[in-house]
Amino acid sequence: MSARLLTAENISFGYATDLVLRAVTLTLRGGDRVALIGPNGSGKTTLLRILCGILAPRAGSVAWESRDVRAFSRREIAQRIALVPQEMNLPYAFTAHEVVALGRTPHARALAGESRADRDAITRALELTEMQTLAPRIFNELSGGERQRVALALALAQEPALLLLDEPTVHLDIKHQIEMLELVRALNRERGLTVLAAMHDLNLAALYFDQIILLNAGEIVARGAPRDALTVETIRAIFGAAVAIEPHPTAPQAPHVILLPRA
Questions:
Q1: What confidence tens digit (pLDDT) does each residue in 104-128 have?
Q2: Which fold has domain 1-80+160-226?
Q3: Which residues neighbour 140 within 8 Å (Cβ) at sequence distance 6 or greater?
Q4: Is 0.85 surpassed by the pTM of this model?
Q5: DSSP-derived 3-state class of residue 4
Q6: Which of 6, 71, 87, 176 could form a disulfide with 172 if both were Cys (CB 3.0 to 4.6 A apart)?
Q7: What residues does CATH 3.40.50.300 cover in the chain?
Q8: Pairing mode, strands 81-84 and 162-166
């Protein structure tokens, strides 16, 4: 069994008096590929922000390899964990290449300038996301899907051990949804990159992730392999939707969720 990378224990968080997360406990091990699923407002984005240290929990703790993340500097966390948000808007006219280069900031040495390793990491990230030709373009002038791919390239340039994705396919067409998740799976399998992705699409989650965590009203209500976590009863209870589930025609380990119209 792989070593623990990140452990969250009894995490609770709230804004004002309302709790968004309630006693959430999870462990991510090296090489895990996990989808975090839940309805809008269930706490998925909040949990990702807590795991990478952007938010501090009201109760509970987060540890990286048994060391409390609060003991790390922001630079040290960014050398280990990268977060790709749903939206990334910049106030200045950075090119896509300049945005991706920001991913090397945690590794920069004072007054040393850009190193060969930095240039190689930036080039590799642009190639992996197929953004080389758009690198000179102004980031804010790109389409939503193109900006999402630049955001992923920025995260890959960080060369993290853990990649957190917040709705990574939300702005992408079908072709680019598949390409992005194929890339994430390949990086997981070939380089051991650990991935936790907040997802809405149940079928994409079942196809591309080995484990599913279902979050509802700030609590984990189910977890396990896709075929175990995604059941008719659980989906109805969490989403209030009627579905049927059949084996995927080419990936029998992945349940295929079929929405049923209301009579």
A1: 999 987 656 778 999 999 999 999 9
A2: Rossmann fold (3.40.50)
A3: 89, 90, 93, 94, 147
A4: yes
A5: strand
A6: 176
A7: 1-80+160-226
A8: parallel
